Amino acid sequence: MEKLRNGYLFPEISRLELEHIEKYPNAKLISLGIGDTTEPIPEIIASSMANYAHALSTADGYSGYGPEQGNKALREAIVKAFYKDLQIQDTEVFVSDGAQCDITRLQLLLGSKVTIAVQDPSFPAYIDSSVIIGQAGDEGGSGRYGSIEYMKCGPENNFFPDLATTSRTDVIFFCSPNNPTGHAATREQLELLVKFARDNGSIIIFDSAYSSYVQDDNCPRSIFEIPGSRQVAIEISSFSKFAGFTGVRLGWTVVPDELLYSNGFPVIHDFNRIVSTCFNGASNVAQAGGLACLSSQGFKAVNSLIDYYMENANVLGEALSSVGLQVYGGANAPYIWVHFPGSNSWDVCKHILEKTHIITVPGSGFGPSGEEFLRISAFGHRECILEATARLKTLFL
Ligand code: PGU
C-alpha cells in the first residue's frame, strides 16, 4: 500500500466535485466525470428484483447461500446472450458482484510475481490492484510503476499498441471498447493480440465492460470471437454499464477450460478455488435482476438505454468537433476522448470546471499517455448533456 503513489482516481474526482459545490453552492453542476449510469432501471427488471426480495419473506421463496459461481439459470442465460456460437459453456462463467471486484480476485490468483502489461491509457484499477498485490511500485514519482509494461495507445497508432516493441509479460490487461479512449479494437487488431499472447505464453485479461456499446460489426464484443483465444484469454464483464447496475452490483468472468498454466494445470480450477474462498457468490436479488435483463423484454429495454447514452455521446462529440476540438471515441463507447495539444490535463479539467461547472476526468489519471487529453462521459440525462454542450461550445468558440 505504501507504494501506491496517488489516491484512487475516482474518489479524487468526487472530491473535486464536492469542493466545487462548496465554492459555488448555487451553480448547476453537471457531472460528466465518473462513468456512472443515470437512467432508471427498466420496470420489468426492478420488479423482478422486488418480487424476488419479497419472496424471501416466505417459506417457499426463501433461499440462503447459492452456488459460489452463480445460479445456473443466470450462467446459462449469460452464455446465450453474450457467447452464442462461441463454444463457451455455462460452467466456464463465474457470476460476480462486478468487474472491478473480479479484477482484484484475478490479481489474487496471479500473485505478486507475475509481470503485467496495460494499455496506456487504461482504467486505473488494473495498475492500482497490481501495486496492491505487490507486482509493482512507484518509480520516484514519475507517474510510472516499475515493471509494468505500458502499451501506448493513441491516435498515432490507431489506439492499438505496437506489439513489435512491446516486451513479453505474463499477463496483458486489455480493455475494448477502451476506457478512457472509447476506442473499440477491430477484429484484425484482436487477432494480432491473441497471436502475440500465444507466441509469448501470456494470459490476456480482456475487460469487456462496455461491449454492449459496440456498434461496428468489425469490432468484436468478446475476445472469444477470435480463434485461438480460448487457450490464452480470460474475459471479465459487467451488468453495470449494460443495464445500469452500477449500484445493484453484478458482473461475470469467463475462464475457459483450455486455459492452462505452463505446467498444464487448468487456471479455471484455481479461479474456482479463489471464488469459493474469497467470495461467496453474488447477491441472489441482483442475480434475479440479471436474469430479468436477459429475458427478451428486459434485453430490449436495456438496449434502448444503451441507444440513449450513445445518442448522448453523438451529441457531445459533434458539439466538441464543431468548435474545432479533436475528438476521439464515442462511436462504440460511452466516452469521448478530447485532445488539448500541449496542455496539462488536470489544468484543462479544472479550467472547464471553473468556467462551466462541468466535471470531466483528466486523461493523465489513466496513465502517462493520457496527458493532454480529457475524458468526457456520455452518461447523463439528455437535458444535462444538451446544457453541457451549450456551455462547452460557448467556452471554446
Ligand atoms: N472495467 C472498466 C473498464 C470500467 O470502466 C469500470 C468502471 C469497471 C470495470 C468496473 O465495473 P463494475 O462492474 O461496476 O465493478 N469504470 C467507471 C467507474 C469508476 C469507478 O468508480 O470505479 C469509470 O468511470 O471509469
Q: Ions, cofactors, ligands: which are bound?
A: ligand PGU
> Superfamily at the CATH H level of the largest domain?
Type I PLP-dependent aspartate aminotransferase-like (Major domain)
How far do the termini sit from each other? 44 Å
Task: Give the class from helix and strand content and strand pairing.
Answer: alpha/beta
- Can you count the beta strands? 13
CATH architecture descriptor text of the largest domain: 3-Layer(aba) Sandwich
Biggest beta sheet summary: 7 strands, mixed
Task: Average the pLDDT over all residues and give the rounded result.
Answer: 96
Please provide a written account of the structure.
By secondary structure, the protein is α/β, with parallel strands linked by helices. The protein folds into two domains: 9-39 and 298-396, Alpha-Beta Complex (Aspartate Aminotransferase, domain 1), CATH 3.90.1150; 47-294, Type I PLP-dependent aspartate aminotransferase-like (Major domain) (Aspartate Aminotransferase, domain 2, 3-Layer(aba) Sandwich), CATH 3.40.640. Helix content is 39%, strand content 14%. It has twelve helices and 13 strands. Helix 2 (43-55) packs antiparallel against helix 9 (284-293) and helix 3 runs parallel beside helix 9. The chain starts with 8 loop residues before the first helix and ends with a helix. 46% of the residues are buried. Residues 10, 34-35, 98-100, 123, 175, 179, 207, 209, 238, 240, 246, 251 line the site of ligand PGU.
